[in-house]
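Progress note, sequence design subtask.
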């Protein structure tokens, strides 16, 4: 299944338009500060031989970087077909084509089965999804060991930016909207699923958190072994 609602179709169009720009930005500047934090937190918990699932994978630079540093394989899921085209092209150029697979569509409603992964990444994708609880719950179902995510901090200027972003989408008659989900609710959802927070970092806008599957202790909804 690709796009299942007006929000998804609008998101697909918007992010497809900026796909090449995203790739060129990374080629010029490398990882953003929040992305460096995310990779640092994940690498502290071990990536050698790990399988990666990246939700909202964009042009692929995060999971492809982890592959170059020792991860074994990666699946990228994204709504925007041009993002995935750039990711596939880039994987081929970096000699990673045989270790990557890309799937177009809304991660929550994909009809194509996705195997569980050791590490799941959600970089700046929670803020693009109207129901964070459903998205995170689905991601946790597919995670064996580590889940890492970056999403907006709950600060007044960030709230203003999210509001203005929504206004801009209305002006261009797009159904896509950015969302600000409360960090406490996101963290609590992950903790209740049997994970422990092992890393946190932040920039002025972004909050980065990395959780590992708890080895013991009662949880409301344990998923890890």
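Output:
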């Amino acid at each position: 299944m690709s796009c299942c609602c007006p929000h998804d179709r609008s998101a697909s169009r918007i992010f497809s338009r900026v796909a090449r720009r995203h790739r060129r930005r990374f080629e010029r500047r490398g990882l953003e500060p929040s992305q460096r934090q995310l990779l640092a937190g994940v690498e502290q918990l071990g990536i050698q031989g790990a399988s990666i699932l990246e939700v909202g994978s964009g042009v692929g630079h995060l999971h492809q970087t982890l592959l170059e540093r020792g991860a074994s394989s990666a699946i990228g899921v994204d709504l925007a077909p041009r993002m995935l085209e750039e990711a596939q092209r880039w994987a081929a150029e970096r000699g990673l084509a045989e270790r990557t697979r890309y799937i177009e569509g809304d991660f929550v409603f994909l009809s194509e089965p996705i195997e569980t992964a050791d590490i799941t990444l959600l970089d700046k994708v929670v803020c693009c999804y109207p129901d964070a609880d459903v998205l995170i719950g689905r991601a946790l179902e597919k995670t064996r060991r580590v889940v890492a995510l970056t999403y907006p901090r709950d600060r007044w200027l960030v709230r203003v930016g999210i509001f203005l972003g929504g206004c801009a989408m209305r002006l261009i008659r797009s159904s896509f909207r950015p969302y600000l989900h409360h960090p406490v609710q996101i963290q609590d959802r992950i903790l209740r699923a049997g994970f422990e927070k092992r890393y946190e970092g932040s920039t002025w806008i972004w909050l980065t958190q990395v959780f590992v599957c708890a080895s013991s202790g009662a949880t409301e909804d344990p998923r890890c072994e």
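The longest helix spans residues 156-171. Work on this subtask will continue into the next period as scheduled.
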